[in-house]
From TrEMBL, chain A:
CDD domains cross-referenced by the UniProt entry: TM_PBP2
SUPFAM superfamilies reported in the protein's UniProt record: MetI-like (SSF161098)
Species name: Herbiconiux moechotypicola
Transmembrane segments: 7-32, 52-81, 93-114, 126-145, 174-195, 230-250
Protein name: Carbohydrate ABC transporter permease
Automatic annotation (TrEMBL), chain B:
Keywords annotated in UniProt: Cell membrane, Membrane, Transmembrane, Transmembrane helix, Transport
SUPFAM superfamilies registered for this protein in UniProt: MetI-like
Record localization: Cell membrane
Gene3D superfamilies associated with the record: MetI-like (1.10.3720.10)
Keyword Cell wall biogenesis/degradation belongs to the record: no
Upper lineage: Bacteria, Bacillati, Actinomycetota, Actinomycetes, Micrococcales
Chief localization: membrane
UniProt membrane topology term: Multi-pass membrane protein
Transmembrane region(s): 12-37, 71-92, 104-125, 155-181, 264-284
PROSITE patterns: ABC_TM1 (PS50928)
Residue intervals of the ABC transmembrane type-1 domain: 67-281
Annotated organism of origin: Herbiconiux moechotypicola
Stated name of the protein: Sugar ABC transporter permease
Length: 265, 289
């Protein structure tokens, strides 16, 4: 029995190890290549590049992801509260109509989206990207918040109603204070999803100085690339991944719980 | 209940989300339906031409290539990453020392921007100086002067499937892991007493208990495949020629070619496919319950 257990352990480690090598290979390639030819000099060159401004790209991504996150948290909490604790005509209709939006691929509506944002005079502005980023990401967060609010005991609401607390007072003084971890989860998810978005900024932002990191990748690529330029590209990619990795490390718990909850609910 | 809110109060709470998400998305869909029946060039010219764009699409060779690639991507990415995710989750549940490190490795791509992952893979797959061919040459698996065109017309879509699996597997692993945690231990103990081996337990307890999880992952995978854009656009741009186009990149190429009406029609096809497949998948899994 012990021998069998040992054999099983060896097999399991072999499978995990093999897969880990495959998964670490691209990441390893990027790191090793980022030192190719120029060594640390690649990093210095990327940070002092003519076309590519690392800090601007990071700053732009922060603005887009941060702005989107704030709007999403505010509007999804408000709506989740109404869908969870109020009764009103058309409630089911509105909720279903919003849930259907989950299945809309961004690509399928890029053409009308571009003219709409352009028509509003918001092309090449941060607001013009934040609005669709919110639209495409907010519904999952609404679902997560609603299912969290659904779990708050109704007795708390009734007690507060008897005390004469208004609907907004109940939201503000009971629901929000009980929702710290849930709000943290939807904030992290909104931030990561918006940070990672490529198609929307690519569609709506044309000035290179406004590029977020996902778009700025193109500023380090040229028609024919020398080994030196490839080294610099990889250095840029590694540098641009650092913020994602930091967010991942500091919010792993919320990210994982949010992602699994989103799938299970 | 009704007493604690005014009649119009609830609508104030849902107004922002309904206007921003519902308004923008439904308006865009309506606009796309109309635009798909015009010869719009994205600027001013916009004459009604009925279903001509759809007729044209069903006669367009590129459409069928993009459709075929989307199906390949959907089937193989969804299937393989789910199988690998399940495998890793089942092993991780055994709580071997260090299994958290492995979980963190596989989950890392979830936090990375697909645009960055795609760019790393693009240069890794490059035929002449790319790291993958270099590694294969160093291992003696590839002749010193030989190349494998990983992003060529033949292998391209399969390399993109690999990028998809790399990006998504950690997600399935996490979701399966959460699902595994909710299977009662008694089931396994009872099976062990009956003398059921590891494989037997996997196929008669674990996989059936995870049916709900699997069906959610498939639905998300189907929609996710139709949403996939960046990992193709930033590696091959649909090329060489049109060989690695997905429907999404095919649409984008047409849009850039001032074919706004035609690209809207492609968008409607993507949209309808997403709705229909998601609906069918949900119906099927509901019936099983």
């Amino acid at each position: 029995m012990r021998k069998k257990r040992l054999a099983a352990t060896v097999i399991m480690y072999t499978v995990l190890g093999f897969l880990a090598v495959l998964w670490l290979y691209p990441i390893g390639v990027a790191i090793v290549k980022s030192f190719a030819v120029g060594g640390w000099g690649n990093y210095a060159s990327v940070l002092n590049h003519d076309q590519f401004n690392y800090w601007a790209a990071i700053g732009n991504s922060f603005l887009l992801a941060g702005g989107t996150t704030i709007v999403i948290v505010v509007i999804s909490c408000l709506a989740a509260y109404a869908f969870s604790r109020m009764k009103f005509f058309g409630q089911k209709f509105f909720y279903r109509a919003l849930l259907i939006c989950l299945a809309i691929p961004v690509a399928s509506v890029v053409t009308p989206l571009f003219s709409t944002i352009n028509g509003l005079g918001l092309r090449d502005t941060y607001i013009g990207v934040i609005i669709p980023l919110v639209a495409f990401n907010v519904v999952v967060m609404l679902m997560l918040m609603k299912s969290h609010f659904d779990g708050i005991p109704q007795e708390l609401v009734e007690a507060a109603t008897i005390d004469g607390t208004s609907a907004f007072g109940i939201f503000w003084r009971i629901f929000l204070p009980l929702s710290g971890p849930a709000i943290a989860t939807i904030s992290v998810l909104s931030f990561v999803y918006s940070w990672n978005e490529y198609l929307l900024p690519n569609l709506l932002i044309s000035s290179p100085e406004m590029y977020p990191v996902t778009q700025a990748v193109s500023l380090l690529q040229f028609e024919r690339m020398s080994q030196e330029q490839i080294g610099q590209l990889y250095a840029g990619l590694v540098l641009m991944t650092i913020p994602s990795v930091l967010v991942y490390l500091f919010s792993q718990r919320y990210l994982q719980s949010g992602i699994t909850a989103g799938a299970v609910k | 209940m009704r007493s604690f809110t005014g009649r119009w109060t609830p609508y104030l709470y849902i107004a922002p989300i309904v206007i921003i998400a519902g308004g923008l998305l439904y308006y865009s869909i309506g606009f796309a339906v109309y635009a798909s029946m015009t010869d719009w060039n994205g600027l001013t010219k916009m004459d009604f031409i009925g279903l001509d764009n759809y007729v044209r699409m069903f006669q367009d060779r590129t459409f069928y290539i993009a459709l075929r690639n989307t199906v390949i991507f959907m089937v193989f990415t969804v299937l393989l990453q789910a199988i690998l995710g399940l495998l890793v989750a089942v092993i991780a549940k055994e709580r071997l020392p260090g299994s958290n490190i492995f979980k963190a490795i596989f989950f890392l791509p979830i936090a990375m921007a697909p645009a960055i992952i795609a760019t790393v893979f693009k240069y890794m797959f490059e035929a002449n100086y790319g790291s993958l061919n270099e590694t294969l040459r160093a291992l003696g698996l590839l002749g010193a002067n030989d190349n494998i065109q990983w992003l060529g017309a033949d292998l391209g879509i399969w390399s993109i499937v690999v990028i998809g699996i790399f990006s998504w597997m950690g997600f399935s692993m996490m979701v399966y892991f959460a699902g595994l945690m909710s299977i009662p231990d008694e089931l396994y103990e009872a099976a062990e007493l009956d003398g059921a081996g590891w494989w037997r337990r996997l196929f008669s307890i674990t996989i059936p208990s995870l049916r709900g999880t699997t069906s959610v992952l498939i639905t998300l995978g189907i929609v996710g495949s139709l949403k996939t854009f960046d990992i193709v656009w930033l590696t091959t741009m649909g090329g060489p020629g049109v060989s690695t186009n997905l429907l999404s990149t095919f649409l984008y190429q047409e849009r850039q070619g001032r074919e706004a009406g035609y690209s809207s029609a492609i968008g409607i096809v993507i949209l309808v496919t997403a709705f229909v497949l998601a609906l069918v998948q949900m119906r099927l899994s509901n019936r099983e319950k």
